[in-house]
């Protein structure tokens, strides 16, 4: 299996990358980043691409991949709907369109979030935009696609969030991790990465995957 990862400089993307490196079923990983992750591994290639509104320049480098883990995301805090839509829907649309044009038989995994509104008509702005993004990906025509909707994600393997207040929360909550992980809605960065890889090997009837489903799929081998 050959995989593309976006957002590998963030918590979720980094988690997926680490699981891909450890999983012998993954032959190659292509990272699409604005800034280098500075990682050196025989499996890993990295392409630095500054303009995420247009992926045409790296189209040929994206050929021949089996799955995409689209882990990019931005905080909605203080952001207008127009800007949030640009950074969430528009970028995802540009990426998905380019990848579908060169890899129509690809599986596409998108990191969304619990509470996303697939009707696109709700009162919560971020949920509408995420829902619009999910619908676009599901209707693109890929061989398969999954919308990952985690709630609380507990970091493992030294992974940290790029959002400072998340890290503060994790520091305070760490003593309670053993209790939190027992909750069906809670997952870990490791389980999230494993589940994403497993969607390629074990196709799922459900296309919207929340904490419980993510943890279940992570154990498939």
Automatic annotation (TrEMBL):
Compartments, record wording: Membrane
Return the Pfam families for the record.
Epimerase
Q: Which residues form the NAD-dependent epimerase/dehydratase domain?
A: 4-105
The superkingdom listed in its UniProt entry is Bacteria
Main subcellular localisation: membrane
What the entry lists under Gene3D superfamilies is as follows: NAD(P)-binding Rossmann-like Domain
GO CC annotation, single: membrane
Q: Which InterPro entries match?
A: Epimerase_deHydtase, NAD(P)-bd_dom_sf
Question: What's this protein's name?
Answer: NAD-dependent epimerase/dehydratase domain-containing protein
């Amino acid at each position: 299996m050959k995989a593309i990862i976006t957002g590998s400089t963030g918590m979720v993307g980094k988690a997926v990358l680490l699981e891909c490196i450890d999983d012998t079923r993954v032959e190659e990983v292509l990272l699409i980043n604005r800034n280098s992750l500075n990682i050196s591994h025989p499996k890993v290639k990295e392409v630095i691409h500054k303009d995420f509104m247009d992926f045409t320049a790296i189209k040929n480098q994206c050929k021949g991949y089996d799955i995409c883990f689209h882990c990019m995301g931005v905080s909605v805090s203080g952001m207008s709907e127009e800007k949030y839509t640009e950074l969430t829907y528009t970028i995802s649309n540009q990426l998905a369109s380019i990848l579908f044009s060169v890899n129509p038989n690809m599986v596409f995994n998108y990191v969304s979030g619990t509470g996303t509104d697939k009707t696109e008509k709700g009162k919560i702005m971020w949920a509408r935009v995420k829902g619009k993004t999910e619908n676009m990906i599901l209707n693109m025509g890929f061989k398969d696609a999954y919308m990952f909707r985690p709630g609380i994600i507990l970091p493992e393997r030294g992974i940290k969030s790029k959002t400072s207040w998340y890290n503060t929360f994790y520091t305070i909550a760490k003593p309670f991790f053993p209790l939190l992980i027992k909750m069906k809605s809670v997952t870990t960065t490791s389980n999230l990465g494993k589940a994403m890889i497993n969607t390629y090997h074990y196709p799922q009837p459900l296309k919207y995957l929340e904490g419980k489903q993510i943890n279940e799929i992570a154990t498939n081998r």
